[in-house]
């Protein structure tokens, strides 16, 4: 079933700094796809993808489409989540030129939005959360919850859980039980 055929919210939306925290996203997918683990969700990104060559504004529009089919928003928070700028209009080749001094609109006539993809996703999730349409889970790619690394929009919203723990052997491990419990409590 494609995204345009969906009429209700059944998916999970995973967001994060894909450059810095891909390992955390990958472990969620591993737990979800494995017969051994009991984590189960349908990733909305499996329904539709944006092309890397798309304009930032086009990608942001597709984020809204995907969010509309999600019942759960999961943000992976890592070292740079709150400071990553990928998706800001000023990074786009269509941002502006000498004839566009006001910088309200880009060369294509789109409204300029200098929020990152992550901050855009968090703002959308907060709006949907406030409307009772989505639940929010914030997973920290760390041994502790550090809300200063979480975007302001959802810093104090939803459930916040550390994904890693330090074992008695002083090694670090993924905390499946904490993540599973957080998903189950939503």
Please explain how this structure is put together.
The protein is an alpha/beta fold and 186 residues long. It has one domain: Rossmann fold, CATH 3.40.50. 26% of the residues lie in helices and 16% in strands. It is built from four helices and six strands. It is globular and about 55 Å long.
What structural class is derived from the secondary structure elements? alpha/beta
Strand content: 15-25%
Second CATH tier, the architecture: 3-Layer(aba) Sandwich
| Number of separate helices | 4
* Topology as a string of helices (H) and strands (E): EHHEHEEEEH
What value does the Rg take, in angstroms? 18 Å
Helical content band: 25-40%
CATH topology (level 3) name: Rossmann fold
Report how far the terminal alpha carbons are from each other. 25 Å
Stretches where pLDDT is under 50 for at least 5 consecutive residues are: 1-6
Assign the CATH class. Alpha Beta
Total number of distinct structural domains = 1
List key phrases describing it:
alpha/beta; Rossmann fold; 4 helices; 6 strands
Topology:
Layout: E1 11-16, H1 22-33, H2 56-67, E2 70-77, H3 117-130, E3 135-140, E4 159-162, E5 164-166, E6 172-174, H4 176-185
Parallel strand pairs: 1-2, 2-3, 3-4
Antiparallel strand pairs: 5-6
Helix pairs in contact: 2-3
């Amino acid at each position: 079933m494609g995204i345009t055929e969906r009429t209700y919210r059944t998916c999970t939306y995973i967001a994060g700094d894909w450059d810095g925290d891909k390992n955390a996203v990958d472990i969620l997918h591993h737990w979800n796809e494995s017969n051994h683990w009991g984590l189960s969700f349908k990733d909305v990104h499996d329904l539709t993808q944006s092309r890397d060559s798309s304009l930032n504004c086009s990608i942001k529009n597709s984020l809204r489409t995907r969010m509309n089919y999600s019942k759960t928003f999961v943000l992976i928070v890592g070292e740079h989540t709150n400071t990553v700028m990928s998706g800001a209009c000023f990074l786009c080749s269509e941002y502006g030129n000498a004839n566009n001094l006001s910088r309200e609109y880009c060369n294509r006539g789109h409204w300029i939005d200098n929020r990152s993809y992550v901050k855009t996703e968090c703002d959308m999730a907060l709006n949907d959360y406030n409307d009772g349409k989505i639940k929010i889970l914030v997973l920290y790619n760390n041994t502790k919850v550090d809300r200063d690394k979480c975007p302001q929009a959802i810093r104090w919203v939803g459930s916040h859980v550390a994904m890693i723990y330090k074992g008695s052997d002083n090694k670090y491990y993924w905390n499946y039980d904490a993540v599973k419990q957080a998903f189950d409590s939503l």
